[in-house]
Amino acid sequence: MNGTPISRGIVSTLLMLCLNFTASTVNAAEDTIKVGILHSLSGTMAISESVLKDTVLMLVADQNKKGGLLGKKLEPVIADPESDWDAFAEKAGELLTRDKVAVVFGGWTSLARKAALPIFEQMNGLLYYPVQYEGEESSRNIFYLGAAPNQQAIPAVRYLMSKEGGDVRRWVLLGTDYLYPRKTNQILSAYLAAEGVSLEDMTTIYGAPTQSDWREIVERVKAFAASGRKTAVISTVTGDSNVHLYAELVKQQVDVSKMPFMALSVSERELRSVDLGKFAGHMAARNYFQSVKSAENDAFIKMWADFNEQRDKATNDAMEATLIGFRMWAQAVSQAGTADVNAVRQAMYGQRVRAPSGFEVVMNTNHLLSKPAMIGKLEASGSYDVVWRSISPIKASVWSRYLPDSARRIADWTFPWVCGGCTEPTFKDW
Fold first, then answer.
1. Which of 181, 171, 186 has its CA nearest to residue 237?
2. Cβ burial 335-358 (10 Å sphere, 16+ → b, else e)
3. Nearest 5°: phi and psi at 206?
4. Which position has the higher pLDDT, 312 or 91?
5. How many other CB atoms are found less than 10 A from the CB of residue 415?
6. Helix (H), strand (E), coil (C) string for 339-371
7. pLDDT 10s digits, 310-343
8. Could you tell me the pTM of the whole model?
9. How many CB atoms neighbour CB 15 within 10 A?
10. Ordered DSSP codes for 153-202
11. Average of per-residue pLDDT values in the chain
């Protein structure tokens, strides 16, 4: 989070890059506009990130069919940080200085984003980050395309607390032991306390980032839920650990009709290696599901299937976020008449896209989107049926009003605020 120490490796990378950095990340003399793709194609996060690399390649190819941007073709440049957080900083630096990309689409975990953030700020690059995150951070060099807690985690809990969602009264906050789950669970704990839930009625459990044996943890969850009062699990488990977790839930015959299980960081794609029919009734909170009925979603699914020559027809939330971010970036470049970072950043504010979710989403001056919240329930067929959605898009809150240190902070990168977390405007009328 803000104030997190920067690792020695990142400091070294910054010093090296600063020595080689020129005035701009874009070489105007080149015949192409370079688009950086920074996603793990190996390691524990490849199960989630590899498809996002292909999503950007699809969008680049589609834009080039339309003539590119500003009379230039887009050229993708791929970097694989191999699920190594510090490697995200190194690879980001190479994309910005050696390859001179105009923009970078990439990242999944908050640790990877945090590692790369100083590089983008020092080099004045632009990162479009496609995954839900814990909030409590707003950088002028990052556009956050996924959900903030008030667009996903809190609506998920509110739904489960309602009669429609099961009238849940006890809570297990289950996550992978790293930044995003811990901060999200801190916010959820504060929210639950504000709603009158006692400390005895909530517990937090973490597994390792590479956790494969979930037997004891699932036993602990079941023991906590055995009190008789309706208990739900909110899961922030990430990566391929989900495959092992869901298999253990089936093995221990966890009945999700009695103990609802709500995932915040999983989709059909992470579970494709298992029999999804066994997980019917499991829920997920997202901003998009493939089952959404809209003309924009039909076009998105067809575009993806055609790109893969019909070998892969499955889309997910992070893919939709990538599409939204890419199209907004392309619109901003066209509007600004340049791929220059400063001009594009200014043109991003207020950009609108009719998204596959069926809603028009907008980029706000806090660098986050207004997006709909959705709850999906997994069907025996392996698809999520949307059982609840917000009436309209929800504006993302960077700083949680449930955390005392955050409640007074404002993120707004336009005059007079021009900050990611200040309590009064940076610029004042004298």
1. 181
2. ebebbbbeebbebbbebebebbbb
3. -125, 145
4. 91
5. 10
6. CCHHHHHHHHCCCEEECCCCCEEEECCCCEEEE
7. 989 899 999 999 999 999 999 999 999 999 999 9
8. 0.90
9. 10
10. HHHHHHHHHSTTTT---EEEEEEESSHHHHHHHHHHHHHHHHTT--GGGE
11. 91
